[in-house]
Amino acid sequence: MKGGTPSEPVKELFGALGPAGTHMAQEEVQMFPTTSLTLGREELETPLDDLESVVALYQSRVFRFLLATLRDRDAAETLTQETFLRAWSARSSFREDCSLATWLIRIALNLARDHTRTGRFRFWKRVTASAGRCGGCCVAGSHARLLRRSNT
Question: How many CA atoms within 13 Å lie on the side-chain side of 110?
Fold first, then answer.
């Protein structure tokens, strides 16, 4: 092959070769410019697109944080799963201003606060309900009476 053209025996074997070694028909082929038909969202990849590796990397860190915060193993396990579920759901809003670990811990912190807040609400709801049943004869009943007085 001299000067980039195939030798005569090669031409006989394969015919006329076009660009990049493709077989060209004898007629002229009109080439159209290629266009990308993506919607744009597919091109924006976030670190959370591979959720399995993110969970493998950060699950123990998030769990330890929640366990230290809540001191309840069952709640920490549940909220760890909820953290990754929320992160996956909100992965398009991850701006990468901070590290992925920081973002996950922030989600876990918000979930822990919500959990603690609803736990306190349940406690006081039980206290006031039990105070209403016992008529104020117990310690919980006296607390409920005090709460009612302070609310009026």
Answer: 10
Lowest mean pLDDT of 27-31, 73-77, 95-99, 112-116, name the range: 27-31
Q: What does each C-alpha distance from 151 to 29, 132, 144, 148 come to in angstroms?
A: 86, 16, 11, 5
Domain of 81 in residue numbering reads as 48-121
Q: What is the number of domains present in the chain?
A: 1
**How many angstroms separate the Cα of 129 from the Cα of each of 28, 137, 144, 147, 149?**
88, 13, 9, 12, 16
pTM: 0.54
**In a 3-state reduction of DSSP, which class is residue 82?**
helix
Q: Which pLDDT does position 141 carry in this prediction? A: 55
